[in-house]
Amino acid sequence: MIIVMNADATDKQIKTVDSRLQELGFKTILNQGDVMTVIAAIGDKRLIETESLESMDGVKQILPIREPYKMASRETHPHDTVITFDNGVKIGGNHNFAVMAGPCSIEENPDHLLRIAEVVKQSGAQFLRGGAFKPRTSPYDFQGLEEEGLRQLADVRDKTGLLVVTEVMDSQEVPLVAQYADILQVGTRNMQNFKLLKAVGRQNKPVMLKRGMSATVREFLLAAEHILYQGNEQVILCERGIRGYDSTFTRNVLDLAIVPVLKRLSHLPVIVDPSHATGHRYLVPPMANAAVFAGAHGLMLEVHYDPDKALSDGAQSLNLEQYAAVMRTLNKVTAFYQQEVAQAECLIKA
Amino acid sequence: MIIVMNADATDKQIKTVDSRLQELGFKTILNQGDVMTVIAAIGDKRLIETESLESMDGVKQILPIREPYKMASRETHPHDTVITFDNGVKIGGNHNFAVMAGPCSIEENPDHLLRIAEVVKQSGAQFLRGGAFKPRTSPYDFQGLEEEGLRQLADVRDKTGLLVVTEVMDSQEVPLVAQYADILQVGTRNMQNFKLLKAVGRQNKPVMLKRGMSATVREFLLAAEHILYQGNEQVILCERGIRGYDSTFTRNVLDLAIVPVLKRLSHLPVIVDPSHATGHRYLVPPMANAAVFAGAHGLMLEVHYDPDKALSDGAQSLNLEQYAAVMRTLNKVTAFYQQEVAQAECLIKA
Amino acid sequence: MIIVMNADATDKQIKTVDSRLQELGFKTILNQGDVMTVIAAIGDKRLIETESLESMDGVKQILPIREPYKMASRETHPHDTVITFDNGVKIGGNHNFAVMAGPCSIEENPDHLLRIAEVVKQSGAQFLRGGAFKPRTSPYDFQGLEEEGLRQLADVRDKTGLLVVTEVMDSQEVPLVAQYADILQVGTRNMQNFKLLKAVGRQNKPVMLKRGMSATVREFLLAAEHILYQGNEQVILCERGIRGYDSTFTRNVLDLAIVPVLKRLSHLPVIVDPSHATGHRYLVPPMANAAVFAGAHGLMLEVHYDPDKALSDGAQSLNLEQYAAVMRTLNKVTAFYQQEVAQAECLIKA
Amino acid sequence: MIIVMNADATDKQIKTVDSRLQELGFKTILNQGDVMTVIAAIGDKRLIETESLESMDGVKQILPIREPYKMASRETHPHDTVITFDNGVKIGGNHNFAVMAGPCSIEENPDHLLRIAEVVKQSGAQFLRGGAFKPRTSPYDFQGLEEEGLRQLADVRDKTGLLVVTEVMDSQEVPLVAQYADILQVGTRNMQNFKLLKAVGRQNKPVMLKRGMSATVREFLLAAEHILYQGNEQVILCERGIRGYDSTFTRNVLDLAIVPVLKRLSHLPVIVDPSHATGHRYLVPPMANAAVFAGAHGLMLEVHYDPDKALSDGAQSLNLEQYAAVMRTLNKVTAFYQQEVAQAECLIKA
Lengths: 350, 350, 350, 350
What we know:
The structure is a homotetramer of 350-residue chains. The first copy, chain A, has 350 residues and is an alpha/beta fold. Chain A folds into 2 domains: 2-63, Alpha-Beta Plaits; 83-347, Aldolase class I (TIM Barrel), CATH 3.20.20.70. Helix content of chain A is 34%, strand content 17%. The first copy, chain A, contains 11 helices and 14 strands. Chain A has helices spanning 11-23, 50-54, 110-122, 147-160, 174-180, 194-201, 217-229, 258-265, 274-278, 284-294, 320-341; strands at residues 2-5, 27-32, 37-42, 59-63, 83-84, 90-91, 98-102, 127-129, 163-167, 183-186, 207-210, 235-239, 270-272, 298-302. Chain A has an 8-stranded parallel beta barrel with strand order 7-8-9-10-11-12-13-14, surrounded by 7 helices. In chain A, α5 links the parallel β9 (163-167) and β10. In chain A, α3 packs across α4 (147-160) and α6 packs across α7. The longest helix of chain A is centred in the C-terminal third of the chain and has 22 residues, at 320-341. Chains in contact: A-B, A-C, A-D, B-C, B-D, C-D. At the A-B interface, α2, α6 and α7 of A face α2, α6 and α7 of B.
């Protein structure tokens, strides 16, 4: 950590700051410059709130040097995390591409979910996604089938062999959802629900953490760190679009560059959800393919039996036929990417 | 609701949409224009997901007409909500100005909290704020004293007569926090933690809901609606700064214009937290005074015994002396506002 | 255009609005609903400022129906604009992919520019980019070689056969820059410099218009409309990243979904600049490839002789060797995209 | 400037960076830490592009220490700039409050402008604002009366004694506009039109620079620096709202906290335009009063003869009667602020 003192900081102020740093366990080096004094504090920044130092007399700025997360960082864990499921499916690393597809919400008719799952399976996906507990902006919108939805998912898993990813919205519901799901999803609106992060961190199912609506890269990785810190090392990061200033034509702004950024900073797998990010189905295929070339380890896609009658997010859902067509192309795209591009990408260091 | 059809929509497409609307319980009127057909659907939009209509063949756009919240809206509840506490203190309406002051986190030494509370009380505030459960971006930061912190707050309340506002972070902790607090605070990061909103909506303490980091006005009022919908009518809205694109000199962007916007759309009281919004103590006094003129019903202010040693948010906290000085001015400012400005403001209708 | 009246609008207010619309040349249809009256105004919205209608008594909301641009829209011009240069190179349409590469600024040593151009040419690009007039945030930064830079560009064009794209910053300099350039670039900071847009609209060279830092899709297409409206039909749109709330790891947020959005709304070619968008060279290859799959008609790439000594934007520039490697992959990627993906993408309508 | 080297930077890399810094004229100090080496480079950062250093091998991060502007900064110019006009009116410093009021655009009927000006004058404003050259997002909107508008302004100035502030949009028009105006306005969309900034910097009329739509504090002050650098020391900064993610209820987000931030960093006067910032007239009075308490040196207000028929920005314009009412309150508010608040605000240092 670097502490820059004001040009007119007095010797006493400099000394006070220096002492406080030493009190806090840092080794300090003073640079007396022509213009100002700079103190280099060596030690673990994670132990302190830099903001309180910033308000000391004579301090101009605190410049952190290390990233604030630790277990999520590639520095402490250089190799890619690869999550392996009982059936041999893997997420993360160089040679696995995960597709999670299904409806936004589980709806009443279980035959529809089964039909979707069959198409999803056939087209080459490994995971069935679907919400039983739904975070809804309005209390007047459909709130999900809850446990009934979880049962449908488990039932379809038994019939198809697909793994199940579904959202958990509250620390109290973690045990229930974990009973049915193969991956616990923490949604965008809960990315900084720290009690929930801790709760999913204390059980042993993989967690898919969706980026918050306006989360910075550091906040995102620190949210993952909360989970890792509780002992759960199986965390998947998911980019799903951030809040932009123009939602006329896309619901959110899909920030694909975060994929290579996260892969550089962290060892955790990164997937992309182009359906929620864009909100319009015609944008899903180009953004899905683009995500592959951004280096994503997988995709979440919304598919619905009859999107015009969906209880949530119909406009962004593909119907079964569209989904099958998208997957035919996507399978070629991922194969091409693996063969021709994946290696080449590593040539330029950050 | 207005459904605009594409210029080249076929009669069959128009008819299908019209039928679907009638199925959903709407009365419809067709406008056949030179350029396109427009369907006016009269009925309760809250019953459906407009997005699924949007994806029907031939539909260009759906234009909502009514605001999506109902109980939070001034249309259904024209008079200001005024929350009255046992000791006679009021929040909301025209003649009450609430000040909530105290440290960001409750820390170990209970004498410090008591000393802060005495100054807070003396200067004219009615509420002591302070966090026992702390939502922290990093797992390595101080997470709060939890129940021990709540006990300190209750103890200081007994000694000073101040009312207590403190954050609850998880649905499971609502009963515990409600036992000690006079107002339950739902923090920025939990504005769309719907299980928590429901939980605080089902008990009978006032709730202060902080605006999410990038929440729109509608999302904010819909979050309040989740609480109201459960039967709790005592909701206070709090603007605390939104995420901006430049955090070099202010932590967030304080959006003061939301105060008159919310007062027009809703009957709920609106307060402002200039400490978290700006992140720098020298910005607190001008923004606090400005908030009064924006029409806020109250303020949250951070005060710390020794800001340079605060375990959280030191840089934005006032020390006791600064706080007392700020309040001396603020008291004059609110009095002047009541006498000379409050009435005049109402002359221009929205 | 749809005018929604307040629930409590009086008959007189409705009549006044209706008359004013008719005065303005609209044909009107009144929908008297249970809740409110809605007026459909049929005619050319472009003739009026809707905002002034919005402030009339009794008006709740004005809902536009048509996009506000006309010449830039695909509705009035269904086929892709393809720009053809004297040497047969094309931009736009289905089968052309344009690469514009070169240094951010033209610097003193003309041999460096020539060397870059040779590599650019060899690797398969058709355009040399380079700034002679530089828009610089700080007056202390290098402001460009001006005419001397233009001469270097022209000289290298003669030697290599590459076409030249370079920025013009002011209406007064349009004739000078047009004398040397094959494409006139209007930069991000000038996207709404309307006098400049008009000036480039009145000459007959193609114009590449970069999206403004926080320009909406409509503002971007309206800026293009200013150029088209003056008679110049050769406009290329360029996405180059928008302002985000986190510039710690990427300079801007590359908004790739705008590519298919623009291609749906407009017939104009769309290219992507991943160098300025990300600001870091390791992000350029994945984002360049991703842009191809988003459907871009071309790319702008920054290449420098010796990026560590660049007078501007060194950190995002590729060196010659890196550039050549990126292009080897890119050429395979664009070929694969043409063969396997381009057609498939069109299956899902907006 | 602080250069932080990677943890695994080699001695050779450190040496190369150190040498390059010395070549560039910096004095350097090396801190060899346990974790990494940090180089403090003392000298004028303004001479170099830090980005090119950032891309050197082994460099992790460059941390600037001084603000990049110089003439605009309070460090080099501690006393407030006060601009004095021929008639004795002043902008800036502690005891002057400037009001600039008038229509968005000058329209055909000169009697209307005169009538507005009379009310503006009577109510206590010193400046008449009004656009003759209008930057319009759409080419189909009214583009302004141009020189005819300037003549109207000058004529009204002669009749009323008000000073005139009007926009100049292009470097070529600076001499013409300067002939008529007392203050040259550079609009939001031109904040980084550097040729225009240079042109207004080379003449000797005061310039009012409006903040760009998504300009950071540094970009704003660097734009002012471009003007100052050409020799014109009379620059007024104007906050007019920034782009937000929710324009449903306010056009932009009024960032009032930038007022005290700018006053701390710079000596230049700062005014606020609540009309453009909010876009709705009912928001103008509370935001105008709030701006006073944020410490603004003045306000721009839109007033129109008949807002419902305005050719631009009608919805945010006050009519004459509303304006007069707003000013009656504002005059009391500014007086109260001067007497009771202005001094008190200075107690807390940044």
